[in-house]
Description:
Elements: E1 18-22, E2 27-32, E3 35-39, E4 46-50, H1 51-59, H2 66-76, H3 84-97, E5 101-105
Antiparallel strand pairs: 1-5, 2-3, 3-4
Amino acid sequence: MHQRKRTPDLNDRMSLPISILKNPSIVLRVEYEDQAVLFDPDTGAAYGINRTGMHIWSGLDAYHSLEDIRHHLDSVFDRLPEHLDRHIEDFIQELAARSLVTFGGR
């Protein structure tokens, strides 16, 4: 029987220095100013993201830690949600569950 590989839980690794890396196959297709789609041409899967998700995704080219992403969003937006770290973690977890990002050591 084939077992599904467990997606690493970001919370399991918060104490470790990790890098968040894009799946290089994924294509960002901007639909509107505040909406885009992450498309995997290998599987045909698509995942819709909002403006904040677009900034996180684009920022992963240069920023590979949760702290870096938080600072990047702080520089882009005037107001951020109270529990920003939790929102970022949830979004990254969703990307990882869909194989859009992976985690690596620093």
